[in-house]
Specification:
Bound molecules: xanthosine-5'-monophosphate
Structural class: alpha/beta
CATH superfamily of the largest domain: Class I glutamine amidotransferase (GATase) domain
CATH class of the largest domain: Alpha Beta
Oligomer: single chain
Radius of gyration: 27 Å
Distance between the termini: 45 Å
Shape: globular
Number of strands: 22
Number of helices: 15
Strand order of the largest sheet: 2-1-3-4-11-10-9-6-7
Number of domains: 3
CATH topology of the largest domain: Rossmann fold
């Protein structure tokens, strides 16, 4: 049984605008119902094949009245599968089933008050658990002005005469507001009413059920064969390895390529967790000298990346070939990776792409136990499996490691300075309770010297730049408004405790125009 079969009938979230769809899918899963995102080009036959418990049409950036705006296969409305349209999805239902959507009104953006209709023959199942009037989050220009035949209006706002509508006989519902955002009071209750009351779902999607199903699926896939897993120290590969180990124990060997460009203590943590705590067969390849040798005198960031990537592949390949007979390779692919390549353009789906660009002649079959999970679910699985907090909640770290945080040429001394400064940043950010709030917080070492004075001595040493950003997806980021006390402690500790540093600066560049990393 696969992880998804175990979860019961899925709720399909039809994607009319990726960010809305992902948020809805996550909210459905928070209600312990398994959800999957599908492209809006899905046909009624494809829906039938998935045997969903319900369908949610997401919001989207377009107007339903614009020629070429995405639509749903109209036959889907006839399947008898419950449908909930949100924002664009609701307008689409109105338009496709014969109602009227008008773009001439005043749009609503942000918080507005919703009033539930009190004159219907029976209270709305969808709005049964919410008060008669409450705040919702709106973001629309068009509005439904007349619902289709057979629908009744169940709520309205100042600018949206039909803010909620339903045809319970056909189990088709639409809401103009966004129940999936936290600013909509009771939004989760509305989604739960749709899932439990309308679709008849049971709250069975829990991390325990995910782990059980994933281990069962892994056992079926790999049988008695050997499996290898590349560990990076990051959360995805760690959770994937722990899951595979739970499933097939000694059949798994983890390969940890220690590039020497990791954060302080990271290699020890991997040893302590995987070898000592989990008793996993671990090959720890200490390749620091090899990476530093390959990087000798290299200044250009893109060349650094390329050299590190190639060296990594070579080292991994050598370690893997020494293991000989492994047929399977674990990869920590997450659901958003699948959505990105899947729903936008089906042609882009790559089912057997190689990890980190491993050469084609390394023929492995991939094991991807996290491919239906969001990042927060991966963390929850990691916690449930007993992985340490430091790994489960570790901030993202670039593949080329500290080499792209040393602005200039890389050598052992500079790596040591940066590791020591970076460890202080992590320690103080954790102590201030900010570590999980920040997308990333780290130190950067530009290879320049500045003049300072310590004691009565003139110093001529490196500056350290502190970088701390908030972000949701690394595409954009803002510099974190760290409290002055935290910045003060960071500066004082780094200068006093790290030899070779005499100045600390804080980077207040957002992305764009900056990037998160310095190189
Ligand atoms: P930038 O610097 O482009 O970084 O704003 C965005 C996110 O990606 C990470 N990053 C990398 N990750 N290999 C990686 O695996 C890389 O070469 C690389 N460069 C940047 C960065 O840490 C941030 O989270």
């Amino acid at each position: 049984m696969s992880i998804t079969e175990h979860a019961g009938a899925p709720v399909l979230v039809v994607d009319f605008g990726a960010q809305y769809a992902q948020l809805i899918a996550r909210r459905v899963r928070e209600a312990h119902v398994y959800s999957e995102i599908v492209a809006h080009s899905i046909t009624a036959d494809q829906v039938v094949a998935r045997r969903p418990a319900g369908i949610i049409l997401s919001g989207g950036p377009k107007s339903v009245n614009v020629p070429g705006a995405p639509v749903l296969d109209p036959a889907i409305y006839e399947l008898g599968v419950p449908v909930l349209g949100i924002c664009y999805g609701a307008q689409l239902i109105a338009r496709q089933l014969g109602g009227t959507v008008d773009g001439d009104g005043n749009g609503e953006y942000g918080r507005t008050t919703l009033t539930v209709a009190s004159d219907g023959p029976a209270p709305s199942v969808l709005l049964g658990a919410v008060p008669p009037s409450f705040d919702v989050w709106m973001s629309h220009f068009d509005a439904i002005v007349a619902p289709p035949a057979g629908f009744r209006t169940t709520a309205s706002t100042a600018e949206a005469p039909v803010a909620a509508m339903e045809d319970p006989a056909r189990a088709i519902y639409g809401v103009q507001f966004h129940p999936e955002v936290v600013h909509t009071h009771g939004g989760q209750e509305i989604l739960k009413a749709f899932l439990y009351e309308v679709c008849g779902c049971r709250p069975s999607w829990t991390m325990t059920s995910v782990i059980e199903a994933a281990t069962e699926a892994i056992r079926q896939q790999v049988g008695t064969e050997r499996v290898i897993c590349g560990l990076s120290g990051g959360v995805d590969s760690a959770v994937a390895a722990a899951l595979v180990h739970k499933a097939v124990g000694p059949q798994l060997t983890c390969v940890f390529v220690d590039t020497g460009l990791l954060r302080a203590g990271e290699a020890d943590q991997v040893e302590a967790t995987f070898r000592e705590q989990f008793n996993i067969d671990l090959v720890h390849v200490k390749a620091g000298d090899r990476f530093l040798g390959a990087l000798d005198d290299i200044q250009d960031p893109e060349r650094k990346r390329k050299i590190i990537g190639e060296t990594f592949i070579r080292v991994f390949e050598e370690a893997a070939s020494e293991l000989g007979d492994a047929r399977f390779l674990v990869q920590g692919t997450l659901y958003p990776d699948i959505i990105e390549s899947g729903t936008k353009d089906a042609a882009k789906i790559k089912s057997h792409h190689n990890v980190g660009g491993l050469p084609d002649d390394m023929q492995f079959e991939l094991v991807e136990p996290l491919r239906s999970l969001f990042k927060d679910e991966v963390r929850a699985v990691g916690e449930e499996l007993g992985l340490p907090e430091e790994i489960v909640w570790r901030q993202p770290f670039p593949g080329p490691g500290l080499a792209v945080r040393i602005v200039g040429t890389v050598n052992a001394e500079r790596v040591a300075i940066l590791q020591a400064a970076d460890a202080i940043v992590t320690e103080e950010i954790r102590r201030a309770g900010l570590y999980r709030e920040l997308w990333q917080s780290f130190a950067v070492l530009p290879v320049v010297h500045t003049v300072g004075v310590m004691g009565d001595e003139r110093t001529y040493a490196h500056p350290i730049i502190i970088r701390a950003v908030t972000s949701d997806d690394a595409m954009t980021a803002d510099w974190a408004r760290l409290p002055y006390e935290v910045l003060e402690r960071l500066a004082s500790r780094i200068i006093n405790e790290v030899p070779g540093v005499n100045r600390v600066a804080y980077d207040i560049t957002s992305k764009p125009p900056g990037t998160i990393e310095w190189e």
